[in-house]
């Protein structure tokens, strides 16, 4: 049976990383995980009006995913947002595909790459039984390549859109843990399951088919104590944020201690967890070309988006203090951290992230199609030469 016992004696499924032939295990053979943060929302992450190809449409994101797979990327990832009309304003106008549906649909047009969608589990239509059934179905459609980024929602406006008041930060993680525990029991259960909890209940519930490799990949993004504890107990991968802002040197100074804290929390639970961080990469072949590209992005900064960010109350711990560290130029470009340089410089910064304890990068770009092509043809070979990546499989 593809399951283990939790501390309370409940049956939970094993992580897909414990199966040597699972897609996740194959990806983890790489020295550094490589992901693409898909722009399924208007504007991607950059509040700039400089003309570009980037768009939220499914066709555009499908083409990006297929090209990333050809380059040997391990995963793609899509965020989820529920914003009022107009979003943050300007180019970040709130138009966005649903992450679970759009990223899941990519299973039909890819063969190897892992597909990670995002779901806010504490509001909207989700019940653990829905979630367990839908994700197990997608797990079979994708051949075990699917995963879910479990988020609890940090903006009051998103909770309120569904008719819920925003729940206290740490309480959200308690409820998310209940949700995930119930879902995992449904994935593992060989008989009907009944459950009465703080927020959800089931009576004689059962899910088929069972996931292919214990369970789908579980992910979360966090920087708080409660979120790190949740990740340590449940997640295979955790997206972390630089505590020191987006400037790369400051981030590299702060990340070793932060990464060590996250991994120590997981080891205290008898588990190993992988860390991913999201750099936005601005690169051209020469220093002058790179500077010109970066300066053009910043020169076309959208004046509406910064005010839009401030309109929506957030209690996310991971981004606290960044407004004071990141100036207008950083906000125009966006990204968790920013890597700006020639291919050689970008490769060296990525190597330093690995030295800081990062297990993988989830890259994003300003102009996704041409910038992905530049990354794949000019930067990726340097990462392979440095021993950070193995070449793409021939059948990718």
Automatic annotation (TrEMBL):
Keywords: Flavoprotein, FMN, Monooxygenase, Oxidoreductase. Pfam families: Bac_luciferase. Its EC number is 1.-.-.-. InterPro entries: Luciferase-like_dom, Luciferase-like_sf, SsuD_RutA_monooxygenase. Residues 35-359 form the Luciferase-like domain. SUPFAM superfamilies: Bacterial luciferase-like. GO terms for molecular function: oxidoreductase activity. It comes from the Bacteria. This is LLM class flavin-dependent oxidoreductase. The lineage of its organism: Bacteria, Pseudomonadati, Pseudomonadota, Alphaproteobacteria, Acetobacterales.
